[in-house]
Write a structure and sequence with these properties.
Elements lengths: L3 E7 L2 E7 L4 E4 L8 E2 L18 E5 L9 H15 L3 E5 L3 H10 L4 E3 L2 H11 L2 E7 L5 E2 L1 E6 L14 E4 L5 H13 L4 H4 L2 E4 L3 H9 L5 E5 H10 L7 E6 L3 E2 L3 E3 L5 H12 L5 H9 L4 E3 L7 H18 L3
Helix pairs in contact: 1-9, 2-3, 4-10
Length: 320
């Protein structure tokens, strides 16, 4: 039987209650959650050492579709393999931190990542932008704060003292944005919510709200819109109470030190994917219009939130 892990935080520890869905979730009153993996996933797990150059390793970290769209990403990577005349290995990981570590060590060459992990990876070890998708006509996305459709809550501030779901600790839309919203009103997740969990994916957070396992969640607008368009079973049971400002869309990145010629060839393949029938069909499956070039400053607003939150932490630590 599938099961959801719901962690209810107490001073004495974590009381676990098993409910009826599947989550890879952690519960915490701290920024670094405890995570318990309840799913068995069949994934490619290359040794964490630099690529031998014979194949191209591409990691799927941040997707702009729910997990049900994973098969479409696999098909798109097969398309890239055909264009490059080179073997492409798909690497899947549960957390954004794992994908960043693989890029850092050179264990993967290319990755689909979220905006938050891109900023961290770029600033910490030189992760490089390759391209960014255009979805629903724009290269931007939002954080949606959602509640159950029949919830009496209509404002983010009304979630005080409630149960909340974040997605990944490094997620921009699923963690950083709501944390920033709280910091602006002099609150933190620990002081504001009764308890919270990390679902590890946006579609699971949507389900958690729809099934009233939590009172609210922060989710990626692209994934909510994809679900609402293709399979609204759970999104139809939720309601958006707040939409954040726009942020740079989750990009495709490469590890530092990737061969410049290979990087340019890859860039060309992505940019031209919408120019042939097969490419357009595959992009349509993952709700991508096309890929475009994007500059690092498209993600500056994410950096600014991180800096502001850290500044508030320092001020509090100094008693100001």
């Amino acid at each position: 039987m599938n099961s959801i892990l719901w962690g209810r935080c107490r001073k004495s520890g974590i009381m676990l209650v098993i409910l009826a869905l599947t989550f890879t979730a952690g519960c915490s009153r701290k920024d670094e959650p405890q995570s318990v993996d309840l799913e068995k996933r069949e994934v490619t797990r290359p040794a964490e050492k630099p690529s031998d150059g014979k194949s191209l390793r591409i990691a799927i970290g941040g997707m702009i579709t729910p997990k049900e769209g994973f098969a479409y990403y696999r098909e798109f990577l097969d398309y890239i393999s055909g264009k490059l005349h080179r073997r492409v290995e798909l690497v899947d990981r549960e957390s954004y931190a794992e994908v960043n570590d693989l890029l850092r060590t050179g264990a993967v060459d290319v990755a689909f990542v979220c905006g938050g992990p891109y900023v961290d990876g770029h600033d910490e070890f030189g992760m490089e932008l390759l391209v960014a998708p255009v979805a629903y006509g724009t290269a931007a996305y939002y954080s949606y704060i959602i509640v159950a459709k029949d919830s009496p809550i209509y404002r983010f501030e009304e979630l005080r003292g409630k149960k909340f779901a974040f997605t990944d600790p490094m997620s921009n839309s699923g963690k950083l944005v709501p944390t920033y919203m709280l910091a602006r009103i002099n609150e933190t997740p620990d002081t504001f919510f009764k308890s919270y969990i990390f679902t590890q994916s946006h579609d699971k957070a949507i389900k958690a709200v729809a099934l009233k396992i939590v009172d609210g969640a922060a989710v990626d607008s692209l994934i909510w819109e994809y679900e609402n368009d293709k399979n609204p079973e759970y999104t139809s049971m939720t309601r958006i109470v707040k939409r954040s400002p726009p942020y740079g869309i989750p990009p495709v990145v490469v590890r530092p030190g990737l061969d410049p010629e290979l990087k340019e060839t890859l860039k060309t393949v992505f940019l031209n994917a919408n120019s042939d029938k097969k490419g357009r069909e595959l992009l349509s499956n993952i709700k991508i219009d096309k890929f475009i070039l994007v500059s690092d400053d498209a993600y500056d607003s994410i950096r600014e939130m991180k800096v502001w939150i850290e500044g508030r932490k320092r001020e509090k630590a100094q008693g100001r």
